[in-house]
Design goal:
22% strand, binds guanosine-5'-monophosphate, binds zinc ion, HIT family, subunit A, alpha+beta, 5 strands, 5-stranded antiparallel sheet
């Protein structure tokens, strides 16, 4: 996707602070953190949002989910953390390349506050 900022971060056209990388995924620190630890996990392949997924993506998305425990342990937030996928403008999504927010380092309450 030519003008997608996270595609550019994924292919290193735009620098980021990388915390995990393999052939298919990249995790990097959010430029505007809302928690002491705030990392974004993306597939390098472009999907606009969760709504883009179909059955064909089950393997890739399954592997993405299994990276969460690995990355949060590496970050030292495995005592408690929040996983967020904002979807659509009304869901708070501002970058339209699928990403998982990994938030930790503070206590979270539900509902948000
Ligand atoms: P969304 O609102 O779409 O769920 O999350 C997008 C996130 O991307 C925001 O938390 C925002 O701070 C982060 N972000 C936007 N542009 C950049 C960037 O160029 N670099 C990094 N590291 N994070 C970004
Ligand atoms: Zn993209």
């Amino acid at each position: 996707m030519a003008d997608c900022i996270f595609c550019k971060i994924g292919n290193k056209e735009i620098p980021s602070t990388v915390v995990y990388e393999d052939d298919d995924f990249l995790a990097f620190r959010d430029i505007n953190p809302v928690a002491p630890t705030h990392v974004l996990l993306i597939p390098k392949k472009h999907y606009s949002s969760l709504l883009d997924l179909s059955e064909d993506d089950a393997d890739l998305m399954g592997r993405m989910m299994t990276l969460v425990p690995k990355i949060v342990k590496q970050l030292g937030i495995d005592e408690g953390f929040r996983v967020v996928i904002n979807t659509g403008a009304k869901g708070g999504q501002t970058v339209f390349h699928l990403h998982i927010h990994l938030l930790g380092g503070r206590v979270f309450n539900w509902p948000p506050g």
